[in-house]
Task: structure prediction
Amino acid sequence: MCLFNDLSKTVCHPEKKMGFGAMILWLIILLVFGWYLGFIALHFYVSLIPFTVCIPACQGLTDILWQGVEFPRYCAERMMD
Result:
């Protein structure tokens, strides 16, 4: 897996295969927790994001909620590693 830092150089990492058991574990985490956490966090994120314009202190909370929204993606990435 190569990551492109800029157009002139790449950083390559050896493939890290976790195995079939880890894939099943991440699939279970995705199905049991990931999607539900993502939907709940999305609801609160969409509700609070307009308030970050007038209340800058809400930015930290919406950043945490955004991590919850992206948790299903994180689970899927770990499942495919």
